[in-house]
Structure formats: structure tokens, C-alpha cells
Amino acid sequence: MATAATAATAASVAPGTQLPRHAMATETPQPSEVTTLPSGETAYAWKLMASERAHIAQMLSVDVSEITLDASYMDRERDECRTCGKYMGLDDLVHNALYGGIHGGPFILDVLQNGPRGQSPAHVVFCSRCVTKHEHARYWAVQWI
Ligand SMILES: [Zn+2]
């Protein structure tokens, strides 16, 4: 579990007003499958959508074939952005980390390909299309499949 302090840190390093807006068309996702991971955690499988995969590849300047994961395993269902209607995705987390100066592209790509390194802090999430701050911070599972 993340503390209020880690959430506050994430918010302070990812000011939404400084993030770029990406005018991407996106699909409406299917409801996430709720699953129990080998670690015992309950997780919502955010199955990567084609638009989400393409957006991530574009941001990381890699071929879409390098974005190999099928889904990310998150603590909650995706929320719909209350401003523009885009559903929260892994592309938003990548966008926020990259353009917020939190992680570099090579690190992010490694996590996407090889899974997260230990406990995720709370990630305050800004919509990558309109930079509205989502109400709920997100965690991802300690272990991916
Ligand atoms: Zn939005």
C-alpha cells in the first residue's frame, strides 16, 4: 500500500498543466477481466487496445511489435475521463511518466516487457488526451503474468 506521502510526491512531479495533450482517437474498452494473480492479488486486467499499444509505441519511439504485453494488471477498473471521455489506459501512465520526467523511455520499455519491479507506488493519473487529473490514483500489481 502506498502512503499519502508517495501520492503527494507523484502529484508534485507530474503537474498536469505541463503535460502535452495527445489528440488520439481511442476505442471504448471491454470491461476488464477480474483475476487472481499468482501473488494472490486481485487485479483488473486492462487488456491493451490497439490504439493504446500504438500510442505507447509512438511515445517510446519504438515499433509497435516491441510493446509485447497483452494486458496490465491494475487495482481498479479503468475510469472514463470526465472531460473528454477517453478511458484510462496504460498509455496514460506511460505518458505521465515520460512527459512528467519521472522515467525515461528505456526504463519504461523494460518494465512493459519484463514486468514491474516490486511494489508500485500510487500513480496519480492525468488523461493523456486532455490532461484532466483522474480522481483515483492507481497501483499495478506486484507481479504480472
Ligand atoms: Zn481526457
Automatic annotation (TrEMBL):
<feature type="compositionally biased region" description="Polar residues">
    <location>
        <begin position="27"/>
        <end position="37"/>
    </location>
</feature>
<protein>
    <submittedName>
        <fullName>Uncharacterized protein</fullName>
    </submittedName>
</protein>
<feature type="compositionally biased region" description="Low complexity">
    <location>
        <begin position="1"/>
        <end position="11"/>
    </location>
</feature>
<feature type="region of interest" description="Disordered">
    <location>
        <begin position="1"/>
        <end position="37"/>
    </location>
</feature>
